[in-house]
Design brief:
Low-confidence stretches: 391-395
Radius of gyration: 23 Å
Strand content: 15-25%
Order of helices and strands: HHHHHEEEHEHEEEEEEHHHHHE
Largest sheet: 11 strands, mixed
Length: 395
């Protein structure tokens, strides 16, 4: 119990830097919840109770304490987390931030909508909401407030690049990103999208025939029946894959567009960390959208803490004390997690603040040398077509 108390005191010291809580009991309960989550590796509240050191005599008392916290409408997790994540990004200045938007289903009853910061092979939650919704497809009206909140949290001078999959291929979203938020964006689109070009008849994306290993880039085109644009396309058919890549962007496209869009897949790893690879979110017995949103806050704090710890470990050149790979094979979250367990066992130091570094990853992860070579060997024959913008009469 002494080791978990050390972790609790560390979290109280860190989280206490950001808020003057109206009710200190809420603050201390949060710290114990994060301790329970890290130590038990599950969101099951009964598994957290053994790690709590309090005046409560029975485990059931601690579980009820957690339940009351998760169902307390006075606890606004977005305001609380906003201060924390903003402070974690203070070093970014004018550095580019990549954001990914995606959804994840829970028991086919709830949809978790999350906008995350792409960070060194994983994603850090930025804003989110859980809604009672039996589909992973959501409209702009359901998540626009999340975009607005994210805009307020990010460093004012940072360039932002927004990434999303086909489920968010919405011209209203594209217009909102460009005209209101002033963010750049890369969004994957469906093969059924219509494309309009000056001097040529409109066609569906699916009618553009690509050979394996071929990529083409169309600039100044317009999409959908509304002829939204001008936008830029990056289209490719990889040698080793079955699916073609169809990406639309507000920026002129080239081969680097695929690399940038590929960062979006890191949010899927983040959802995997939430579920089977980390916190076992789907084992929760909670069936309330608001309570689940608060539970996601606990997960977000744990994720940010562990990734921040992993960042410090790698920067200090101490990764191999907790990672058995010659080159980095574990995520920053797992490195931080291993370090916390080792620190509590043998008395190593833990971090004293939450921090995400804007510097390039000093030690990018490699699942294997073979996989790294395969990624390096990915090549395309390319073709560019630049069209003149359509006249206003045509539009």
């Amino acid at each position: 119990m002494k080791s978990t108390l050390n972790l609790y005191n560390t979290l109280v010291m860190i989280l206490g830097q950001y808020h003057k809580w109206l009710d200190k009991r809420h603050f201390y309960t949060l710290a114990w919840m994060v301790v329970g989550l890290i130590m038990s590796k599950t969101v099951n509240l009964t598994e957290w109770a053994p790690y709590v050191d309090s005046r409560a005599q029975y485990a059931q008392s601690s579980v009820r304490r957690f339940q009351r916290w998760l169902n307390n409408e006075r606890i606004n997790v977005h305001d609380l987390y906003g201060v924390i994540i903003r402070e974690a990004l203070t070093e970014w200045g004018e550095a580019t931030l990549y954001l990914a938007l995606d959804t994840s289903m829970l028991w086919n009853e709830y949809c978790l909508i999350r906008l995350s910061i792409i960070y060194r092979g994983r994603a850090i939650p930025l804003v989110w909401q859980v809604v009672a919704h039996a589909s992973s497809s959501v409209s702009l009206i359901a998540y626009r407030h999340l975009l607005d909140r994210a805009y307020q949290l990010l460093p004012s001078h940072s360039r932002v690049v927004f990434l999303a999959d086909r489920g968010f291929a919405d011209t209203d979203l594209m217009a909102y990103l460009s005209e209101v938020l002033l963010w750049d964006w890369h969004i994957r689109i469906k093969a059924s999208f219509l494309v309009y070009r000056r001097g040529a008849r409109h066609i569906k994306i699916s009618s553009i025939k690509l050979q394996r290993g071929q990529a083409c880039f169309w600039h100044n085109v317009y999409i959908t029946k509304q002829q939204f644009g001008a936008v830029h396309l990056a289209l490719a058919k990889p040698n080793g894959g079955k699916d073609c890549w169809f990406i639309v962007s507000n920026l002129p496209t080239d081969v680097t567009t695929f690399d940038t869009y590929g960062l979006r897949f890191d949010i899927e790893e983040n959802f995997l960390d939430d579920k089977s690879n980390g916190f076992q979110l789907e084992s929760s017995l909670i069936r309330s959208a608001n309570a689940l949103s608060r539970l996601c806050f606990v997960i977000a704090i744990a994720t940010l803490f562990l990734v921040s710890q992993g960042t410090v470990v790698v920067e200090a050149g101490k990764r191999r004390l907790v990672d058995a790979h010659w080159f980095r094979g574990n995520s920053y979250l797992k490195i931080g997690w291993h370090w916390v367990k080792r620190a509590l066992a043998v008395g190593l130091e833990l971090i004293t603040r939450l921090r995400l570094s804007p510097l390039p990853d000093p030690e990018p992860a490699k699942a294997s040398k073979k996989q790294a070579r395969a990624a390096d060997d990915l090549r395309f024959s390319v073709q560019f077509e630049v069209f003149s913008p359509l006249s206003t009469e045509f539009c």
